[in-house]
Amino acid sequence: MYFLYCLFLLLVCAFLKVLHKFWWIPSRIHHHLNSQGIRGPQHKFLYGNGKEILQMRKEAMESPMELSHDIFSKVHPYFYTCINTYGKKFLIWLGPQPQLIVTEQDMIKEILNNKEKSYPKQEVWAYVKKLLGEGSVTSEGEKWTKMRKVANIAFHGDILKRMVPDTISVVEMMLERWKEHEGKEMEVSEEFRLLTSEMIARTAFGSNYLEGKNIFDMLTQLAVLISRNALKFRLPGISKFYKTSDDIESDKLVKEIHVAILEVIKKREAKMAGGVIDTLGSDFLGLLLKAHHDADIDSRISVQDMVDECKTMYFAGQETTTSMLAWTVFLLALHTDWQEKARNEVFQICGHNHPCSDDIAKLKTMALIINESLRLYPPVLGLDRESASDVRLGGLVLKAKTWLYIPILALHSDPKIWGKDVHQFRPDRFSEGVAKATNYNTAAYFPFGIGPRYCVGFNVATTEAKFALSMILQRYRFTLSPSYVHSPFQLMTLKPQHGIQIILRPLEKQ
Ligand code: HEM
Fold this sequence. Notes:
It comes from Polygala tenuifolia. The chain is an alpha+beta fold. It has 2 domains: about 20-115 and about 385-445, no CATH class; about 125-180 and about 190-380 and about 445-465, CATH 1.10.630.10. It contains 21 helices and 11 strands. Strands 1-2-7-4 form a 4-stranded mixed sheet, sandwiched between helices. It starts with a helix and ends with a strand. Bound molecules: protoporphyrin IX containing FE (HEM). Protoporphyrin IX containing FE binds next to helix 7, helix 14 and helix 21.
């Protein structure tokens, strides 16, 4: 009898705890924000709005769209509906977690530029942690400072110049493969995935794509698992007792990635020990190893830190740049007048020679095209933060741990900022700088973020893209293939759901 009584008490306590977390706290926050004029869709017990978000995303992916650059409603159908119903800031629920969606520029500036650490990154969701560990994208505080320092040195301007020979030979490798497709249709996003993988493997890790292939493939598999499990409700702590097949597979991948990256690290150490090289190197891997062996214990980073940071760079360096290159080639294939302008500029500056760093800096039309491509098709679609404590934000009072999400594409496609031609591809809108293009609106254009967490690889990505595009333009004219189906969607970054098919024509044969 006593046992049954205890069991009953235990069940009542557990029930009350669940009720407190999943009903009482959400209702309180909902009421708190509602009383300040923030509205949003109805919160559903346990699931929040996760099911509707997933359902609308699935429906959007089932049918392609017309060939237009007005992609916000296709990529973020739920946000699109909410903005039209509730206005520029609204509250949604990811399970029991409230998330304030912010598209007002003053608030965005305040969140991203805040120096008092009021808006750190959100606590990392378990699956994302499997992918990126606690590397510089996800970490905070002292750990972030150490990691950011290493990355800043690794991707510094002078070091970029040293990457030029590797960049050229990697693009040449790709163009060699393209010879087989001359006069025919080819899909380019997979090509750019190989290109950016080879680039990051060589420039950051002193290896090559084949050596790192295993790591890239496993990270890609993990990214697919993340997307499949995002927004699915799970009772907290349940994975300790019950693992789904995705949990098991992702745990296995995490272990294998760890081992594979350790091998890359050990190989560099062995080279140094065996006298093959006389320093650990000044590339990203070399700098990580130096930080690991730092005489000052406070600056030292652990083996796990090194592995996490390598994962971050393998993934961040490849996914985003692939997306940028793929959408830029798509835009140039569609808007052949701009393709011609870009080509003329490349010939004027580089002739038929390989570009050098100074040439790349002179490619003004190319820079405009890349800006406009990143505006219409930003590879990173949103930024997340949370309120560290109860905080005042743009006239609102937020409770601690309220998640914040800034959908970059909403700002990039706002006609009030960009004007009536907002959905048109018009690179010349940037010809007098970003400030003029945005009608002097700040926090209106930020494909690489804003503030202290600004993208560390921004220079690497844009330089690499300019080299690749110049060398492609020197050799080929291309148009969009009739088989192309327009369906931009989010799988971590902004991707073409069915690839990007172009028809490739060698210049000399025209
Ligand atoms: C077109 C290409 C790229 C785009 C659009 C892009 C975009 C971004 C954005 C928006 C952020 C800010 C995230 C935030 O504030 O929450 C970011 C951060 C970051 N990016 Fe990139 N990125 C690109 C290329 C790269 C490359 C090539 C690398 C590495 C080689 C890289 C490494 C990072 C890292 C480590 C961070 C975290 C910085 C920090 O939190 O301190 N990115 N990126």
